[in-house]
Amino acid sequence: MSLADYRRKRSFTRTGEPEPGRPAPRGRRPLFVVQLHHASRRHYDFRLQVGDALRSWAVPKGPSYDPKVKRMAVEVEDHPLEYADFEGQIPRGEYGGGHVARFDQGVWSTDGDPEAQLAKGHLRFELFGRKLKGGWHLVRSGKPARQPQWLLFKDEDAYAGPLEADDLLAGVTPPPAQDRRRAGSGKATRRRKTEVKAPATRRRDWAKAALALPGARKGAAPDGAFAPQLARLVQAPPEGADWLHELKWDGYRLLATIADGQVRLWSRNGLDWTGRVPEVRDALGALGLRSAVLDGELVAGRGARTDFNLLQAVLSGERQARLVLVLFDLLHLDGVDLAGVPLRERKALLRRVLDAGHGGHLAYSSHAEGEGGEAFRVAGMQGFEGIVSKRGDRPYRPGRSDDWRKTKLLEGDEFAVVGFTAPRGTRTGFGSLLLARPDPEHGWRYAGKVGSGFSEAQLRELAGRLGKGSRAPSVFVDVDDPELRRAAWIEPELVVEVFYRGIGAQQVLRQPSLKALRPDKRAADLSDPDRGPPGPGSTRMGGTKRATAGRAAKVASPGKRAGAVKKAGAARAKKAGADKTAAPRTRRRAAGAGAPPELSSPGKVLYPGDGYTKADVWNYYQTVMDQLLPQIAGRPLSVIRCPGGIARACFFQKHRTAGLERVATVRLKEESGGSGDYLVVEDAAGLMELVQFNTLEFHPWGAHADAPDTADRVVFDLDPGPDVPFAEVKRAAQDLRRLLARLELESFLRVSGGKGLHVVVPLNPGCDWALTRRFARGFAEALTQAEPDRFLAVASKRLRNRRIFIDCLRNGRGATAVASYSLRARPRAPVAMPIGWNELARLARPDAFTLASVPEKLRRRRRDPWEGMDRIRQDLARWADAGA
């Protein structure tokens, strides 16, 4: 920010105002200050730190807590940060001469870039002072003026009310009488409050509910920091119905204590964080609890791996974003010690406390019961570090134990060895290997070092191959690491495969460990853009189009073996039909079937960028009920729920959870050998109950609950890489349709609402999953081998540039695909929409249909493009062997 105007208007030899020169202090969140200024006219100076200066506005009547009252705010010159501490007299005759008193000061935040919002003319922000709290708006006026004019007004939140700035003057240094008269404020001012308390929700007596839980007892809460329970790191998540699986939030562990209504926040190692996160302090105070002890994780953004650097930047004052404390445990409540209560009951009570009302800075950490492997997979898909698995029947025990286990996502790739560090202690050979990856600008770029995972034999083998090395780096290094100055560097020749847990702030590997030496690879191989995924089972893309086209033709033309294949397929189809009726499974109907649920929190914003609320989502699903319900009714179902909206963490659920009364379940065997109660929607009431539970997406199986081992559809998901134009995706869909038609298979089209298209093949009477999976994989691989420049059959994002991934993995028992007419948890609220093949040419984008546009499209639509799909009789029996 420029402070030239500030300097030009002042003579620092005559005024006590601070002269600019001090840089913004690091490690401190942006501050705000409001000063009461009795100059020629009495006004309030409203200042927000943006960068290294205070953006400033003169507000004649001061801020109002009434959202209907919009106060004029005249933009004035930027002030230095030192001005936040200024109080006193500016000499008469000097610019702004008169008395300045500090009215309020604190930190402020906004969700996004404040400079960009100010440039657009609308800044939404929150204040965390003693007198000014909650959400506010600054909106630029369109009226022409010498100085830009804005409107300052209160957001419609829990703090809104009739208070005016002049009601909060208690504790503010009054001006001399002559300044008060000269500034036009000779009348007595109101001085009622020195601070504004957090608006507590209606106080409830939680003690009775807490004492009713098994293991609860009366007791005092700790008055300071306490030792938290910790999780033990494991390689794979535990299985079994007793385990609750939560997302592993990538943030800072925070413990909260409330005593006599006063909130204090503690870091894991006992440091007082109450002042660092005032938004969390105020949100906890708004719960209206007399005493409590809570455990959670402070996050920014969604709390995923990529958001950890954002959290650090917010706390250090470098960036702005909303901070949220995700709560996952409740150890004490209103005089009742809950540490001995089983976790499942503690969390249920915690959810009730949070549902009673709080601001947007608290969130409940939801969980999935059983199916740890699936929870871990979904966490990775959503960009989280992993999961924390907890025994639902156990008490809270400080310290590390097997009752809590964390499973972190391991990524892996191949790297060139470009150096090594000296060994330490009893280590022989070397300390760590220095790694590099190919870089288009510099050839090779340093990627980090790996020092764990080596056997003694590997240490000896590598030490003999590394040589002495040199002190000059052999690759481009853009990292500040003193240890690298003492390292030995070699040319990139050797290749190793490494596990790691994400990429750090300096673009180096986090917590790497050796997976394997790769004597079969050379460093030059890593620069090959067509190399396959890492690992011993990797395959290189390539081969001539003539050879691979022959394989595709083999799938399309089985030739003389067709009769034998058809006969074998008929036997498989008969077996699938027998399994459909013979397999015994427990089907439990919903207790409240047919009774519609009531909508709560209709104004909760679920799509913040678009303003769509929970009521909008509710109305949408009621509108498309006749179209959506046939797509999911009677099928095992997975859903994506977003209790805090799409800007917060969403989670995947496929098992029944407490509170669901209208949704049926089916007991199904799982790959782990156990079984689980899967969600099944049977009617509109069950569907809307899931919407009431903040479900945005519906993902059914490709089979019915009464015949889960028989697939009745094949789904090919065309997922383009970042450089693939949508026109290429549309061409690929048409190519798939033509190839399927050669196999005498009719297909249907759906826009995914994401990046791609779904080509769906109905099966009637259906096929067993083994055959369906073989066919889908064989078809995708044949197409990929025929045109390797266009298609890819493996999920590696690293290889997906300029190619379309043919995702056939949705064609297995337990796999799901998004339902037609389901919303997607993405900006603009797109819809997975079935369309006719004749609509494809004029389709502009895969997320063209939205919550707002689909109801009108249905009213204008003459014919369902998937009409008659269920009556088509076709299966995969004749291609059973050819597709493999």
Protein described:
The chain has 884 residues and is an alpha+beta fold. The protein folds into five domains: 179 residues, no CATH class; 202 residues, D-amino Acid Aminotransferase, Chain A, domain 1 (2-Layer Sandwich); 117 residues, Beta Barrel (OB fold (Dihydrolipoamide Acetyltransferase, E2P)); 116 residues, Alpha-Beta Complex (DNA primase, PRIM domain); 171 residues, DNA primase, PRIM domain (Alpha-Beta Complex), CATH 3.90.920. The protein is 20% helix and 28% strand. It has 17 helices and 41 strands. It has an eight-stranded antiparallel barrel with strand order 1-2-3-4-9-8-7-6. Strands 10, 13, 14, 15, 16, 17 and 18 form a seven-stranded mixed sheet that branches.
CATH class of the largest domain: Alpha Beta
Write the CATH homologous superfamily of the largest domain: DNA ligase/mRNA capping enzyme
Distance between the termini: 65 Å
Strand order of the largest sheet: 1-2-3-4-9-8-7-6
The figure for the number of domains is 5
Q: Indicate the proportion of strand residues.
A: 25-35%
CATH topology of the largest domain: D-amino Acid Aminotransferase, Chain A, domain 1
Q: What shape does the CA trace take?
A: globular
Helix content: 10-25%
The CATH architecture term of the largest domain is 2-Layer Sandwich
Total helical elements: 17
The tally of strands reads 41
Question: Runs with pLDDT <50, length 5+?
Answer: 529-586
The secondary structure category is: alpha+beta
Keywords:
884 residues, alpha+beta, D-amino Acid Aminotransferase, Chain A, domain 1, OB fold (Dihydrolipoamide Acetyltransferase, E2P), 8-stranded antiparallel beta barrel, 7-stranded mixed β-sheet, 17 helices, metal ion binding
